[in-house]
Amino acid sequence: MNRPERHPSAAHGAALADLAERPDGVLEAIAEKHGLSVREVVDLLPSHAAVRVAAGHFDEVWEEIRGWGEVMFLVHGRNGVFEIRSALPAGTHGRGYFNIHGDVPLGGHLRIDRLADIVFVDPPFFGRRSLLVQFFDADRDTMFEIFVARDATRELDAVQTAKFETARRRFGA
Predict the structure, then answer these.
(1) pLDDT of amino acid 53
(2) Residues 60-95: tens digit of each pLDDT
(3) What are phi and psi of 14, to 5 degrees?
(4) CA distance 132 to 114
(5) What CA–CA distance (Å, rounded) separates 37 from 28?
(6) First CA to last CA across the chain, in angstroms?
(7) What is the DSSP string of the chain?
(8) Do the strands 115-121 and 108-110 form a parallel or antiparallel pair, or are they unpaired?
(9) Choosing a second label site near 145 at 20 to 30 A (CA), which of 16, 50, 62, 65?
(10) What is the C-alpha separation between 145 and 125, in angstroms, rounded?
């Protein structure tokens, strides 16, 4: 991603001001506006809103989320946002990829060797609580995100919310 040349402290300060003014803004938009990675913006969130987990726990985190049922798997790039509502399928490591396949809509091949860390994020989003697990690559950009599902009234699924909070405590310890 091309980022405008800015002094890091100035960019971080401006992003912090944006977060203070509009704490429910889109993190990717704030990152792009200030020439930061999404991970740098997530690092500006209060510590209770972003709990980091080492990349070495990927398999455990994936298996944990597999038990949540249907979630929103999201890939957010500069040119679009792709959402797949699906349970997470099983996966296997091979040929440099984490290969996911099963009898669900989600399938593909993830370059988990590029995974730098995982963050359980609890930010407001357009006036509502949002819960997601972000997977960051070695360039500090988002590889993909997994969101707690919402019900028909757009409220967070209560069962998944409890599972998210339990996993955040467990993996963040």
Answers:
(1) 95
(2) 999 999 999 999 999 987 788 999 999 999 999 999
(3) -65, -40
(4) 20
(5) 8
(6) 33
(7) -------HHHHHHHHHHHHHH-TTS-HHHHHHHHT--HHHHHHTS-GGGEEEEEGGGHHHHHHHHHTT-SEEEEEEETTEEEEEEEPPPPEEEETTEEEE-SSSS--EEE-GGGEEEEEEE--EETTEE--EEEEEETTS-EEEEEEPPB-TTSPBPHHHHHHHHHHHHHHH-
(8) unpaired
(9) 16
(10) 14
Query: If you count them, how many residues does the chain have?
Result: 173
pLDDT at residue 102, rounded to an integer = 87
Does the pLDDT value for residue 6 go beyond 80? no
Q: Which residue has the tokens 């203070």?
A: 20
Using alpha carbons, select from 75, 82, 2 the residue that is nearest to residue 37. 2
* Residue 152, φ and ψ in degrees, nearest 5: -65, -25
pLDDT digits over 113-164, tens only? Answer: 999 999 999 976 777 889 999 999 998 889 999 999 999 999 999 999 999 9
CA distance 20 to 70: 33
How far, CA to CA in Å, does 54 sit from each of 17, 34, 173? 28, 26, 11
Query: Does pLDDT of 16 surpass 80?
Result: yes
